[in-house]
Write a structure and sequence with these properties.
eight-stranded mixed sheet; 38 strands; 16% helix
């Protein structure tokens, strides 16, 4: 197969959110595509029949869509979009007019590489330019375009249907007149930023302000009426700009939501669960003010709410599924109880609980794999869906309200990322049951036309631990150059997935190695705690040992090993090039932190940093011990240092420090800063530019290439 051209990025599509209809006969999903002319990602909305009888039907094209949610009747589909009007489907890079006629070359909407680590969440409806996100509803029984049902000046961040389908609860910022004046000055006139908030910035949302988020009730039978604000259903908390309030309408007329109402809400990541009557009244706190609760899901009988909760004061502790007592009378409520405490596994990112026949389904991180589990209310947990296997990853799941059908998003290194349906009754099957069927093939043209890698799991020993990772490789064995692609987090993990970035590297002869070093998740609290408060220790040993193991097997050339990684993957490279200067022939750390003392207060993670390291003026030794820049005198490795100009998770000043330290010593180094990007990979042109820079950097510093050229 041919080498994957980087411009093929414009033909990449990635499945996003998934929503199965109440009766389990249809599935709605979003898919991110790329518009080459506008140089932007666009998320479109599709619907497909569960029986696989026809191809997915596109409902939106050029205006973006998110948060698809079916009405209780199953004929209406609501979603959030910032749109003026819809447009015709546009085509990808290979379908452009060769002469560049812009009228004929209406671009294709393609997706961002899944390799972008996901450490930076997207803001919820706080953009300053263009139309604001609003709720729209398709009536699929009547047909026609979607109807806009909200018109909030600050947009809508989230919503949920009432059980009867006649109302919505929406989440929206509601500035006072004085706050509106300030926002206008900042957004339209470039006025000064003024804040008294401790959490003065949040990655992806920018500078924070004092505006309060509220829940509002929208009457769908009276679209001309103003939404009714629930005055005691308001938000708060350090990361609310990206976390939101999780509004969820219960079966008994109450609405659950999350908020932080502690004395110093910006000085903690605690989020409590509240319930408020949909007709107005006081909100009641249902949890104890000590955990970070999210993703609430009402028990169908209304007696309880399942959440995902973690302890913000214990960073390595797993996130667990909790059952919160939601009895009407406060004195009749029991304490929230963890249902997965005995499992010693964290709920996977995005692993929201779903109720089916009195049981809860959720995704967990388990032995370097995302697994589906069934949780009983007595704390019994059973792993299900063995048919997934270990050679592909579960990126998402949703279950029909009637409990009939589940739709899973599976990412396969050679097949792509797609939707698959399976009967819930067959989730216990050890192999693929007859009800298992593929619903989409969104990247079929890419995987058929260009070389995509196979993947295998590999193991090695390090400091008494048996570790594992994923190796993406050409089917032929041999002495290959190796790219060590280090995951972010560090509390994350790698499993076999479809990735454009991996294919771009392997189709050019590289092997890609993704090591699951200590400090990551999926193997329990003890494994994660190995790196807590001790950056630059366990992961350095584990990654170096993994590379040595691959070289000992004769698969890779130890002189042609290259560093790669985003976020903590960038941070780890900072430690590797200062502690293991002979490991990499060249490295490309992206969006990292290399001096955590100077990062404190200039990034958005002061709450997390304090939980892990304490305060820099009280525990300076811990900060210095986990700061790579203090050992910068050891750097010999050529460095391509990359950053986002508005990255408040890992500020660009951190990358500048590493770059200057290398150049100061005469080490070959280059700094690339994308001015308006935050903690992400960026728009398609920049994502392609990034891959071009990395590939060129490796080739420039490849000893084999230098030997061939006689240099």
């Amino acid at each position: 197969m041919s080498e994957l051209p980087l411009d093929a990025y414009y033909d990449l599509t990635q499945i996003g959110e998934v929503a199965v209809s109440p009766a389990g006969d249809r599935v709605a999903f979003t898919a991110t595509e790329y518009d080459q002319a506008a140089d932007e990602a666009v998320s479109s909305l599709f619907v497909a029949p569960i029986d696989g009888s026809r191809e997915p039907h596109r409902l939106t094209s050029a205006s973006g869509a998110s948060a698809p949610s079916w009405g209780p009747d199953g004929d209406r589909l609501a979603f959030v979009a910032a749109r003026d009007r819809d447009a015709e489907k546009r085509v990808g890079w290979r379908d452009r007019d060769d002469e560049g006629d812009e009228e004929d070359a209406e671009s294709g909407d393609e997706d961002a590489d899944a390799e972008s680590e996901g450490d930076g969440e997207e803001p919820l409806g706080n953009g300053d330019d263009g139309p604001k996100p609003q709720v729209w509803i398709f009536d699929l029984a009547l047909g026609g375009d979607a109807r806009q049902v909200t018109e909030r000046d600050e947009g809508v961040a989230d919503f949920d249907w009432s059980p009867s389908g006649d109302r919505l609860v929406i989440e929206s910022r509601d500035p006072t007149d004085e706050e509106s004046e300030y926002l206008d000055q900042v957004r339209e006139e470039g006025g000064p930023i003024e804040t008294t908030r401790l959490q003065h910035k949040v990655n992806g949302a920018g500078w924070t302000d004092e505006v309060t988020r509220y829940l509002f009730v929208v009457d769908l039978d009276d679209p001309g009426s103003d939404p009714r604000r629930l005055d005691d259903a308001y938000g708060g908390g350090a990361f609310e700009d990206i976390a939101g309030m999780d509004p969820t309408w219960g079966p008994d007329g109450r609405i659950a939501f999350t908020s932080c109402r502690l004395d110093r809400p910006d000085d903690t990541s605690v989020r409590d669960l509240y319930a408020v009557p949909a007709d107005g009244g006081d909100a009641e706190r249902l949890t104890g003010g000590d955990l970070t609760h999210g993703a609430p899901a009402w028990r169908p009988d209304g007696d309880g709410i399942a959440t995902v909760a973690s302890d913000p004061d214990d960073p390595p502790a797993p996130a667990e599924v909790y059952l919160v007592d939601a009895a009407d009378e406060a004195d009749a409520r029991g304490e929230p109880a963890s249902l997965t405490a005995a499992l010693d596994r964290t709920v996977a990112r995005g692993g929201e609980p779903a109720w089916v026949d009195g049981e809860i389904y959720a995704r967990i991180a388990d032995e370097s794999q995302t697994r589906l589990v069934r949780v009983e209310t007595d704390g019994t947990v059973e792993r299900v869906f063995e048919a997934q296997g270990r050679d592909r990853a579960m990126a998402g799941v949703d279950v029909a309200d009637d409990g009939s059908t589940a739709v899973v998003v599976l990412s396969d290194p050679t097949e792509g990322t797609d939707l698959y349906a399976v009967d819930v009754d067959d989730l216990d099957a050890a192999t693929e049951p007859d009800s298992f069927r593929r619903l989409t093939r969104v990247n079929e043209s890419l995987v058929d036309e260009f070389a995509v890698p196979e993947a295998r799991r590999v193991e090695w020993e390090s400091n008494g631990w048996t570790l594992d990772g994923v190796l993406y490789h050409d089917p032929e064995s041999g002495d290959h150059p190796l790219v060590v692609a280090i995951h972010g987090g560090p509390m994350s993990y790698d499993e076999p997935v479809f990735s454009f970035g991996h294919a771009a590297l392997t189709s050019r002869g590289y092997l890609v190695f993704r090591p699951n070093y200590r400090g990551g998740t999926s193997r329990g609290r003890e494994f994660t705690a190995e790196l807590t408060g001790k950056w630059g220790t366990a992961e350095v040993d584990d990654i170096a040992a993994g590379v040595e193991s691959l070289a000992d097997r004769g698969w890779v050339d130890p002189d042609r090993v290259f560093g790669h990684g985003f976020s903590y993957g960038g941070i780890a490279q900072g430690f590797l090039v200062t502690q293991e200067p002979d490991l990499f022939a060249a490295a490309a750390p992206e969006h990292g932190i290399y001096d955590i003392r100077s990062a404190f207060g200039t990034d958005d993670t002061h709450v997390w940093m304090e939980a892990e390291f304490g305060l820099p003026w009280e525990n300076p030794e811990a900060f210095d011990a986990s700061t790579a820049i203090l050992d910068a005198g050891n750097i010999e490795t050529p460095l391509l240092v990359m950053a986002g100009g508005e990255d408040w998770r890992c500020p660009p000043s951190q990358s500048e420090q590493l770059y200057v330290a290398a150049r100061k010593q005469g080490v070959d180094a280059e700094l690339v800063v994308y001015p308006d990007e935050h903690h992400n990979i960026g728009d398609p042109d920049r994502a392609i530019h990034r891959l071009e820079k990395i590939l060129d950097w490796y080739e420039t510093h490849d000893p084999a290439v230098e030997a061939e050229s006689g240099n």
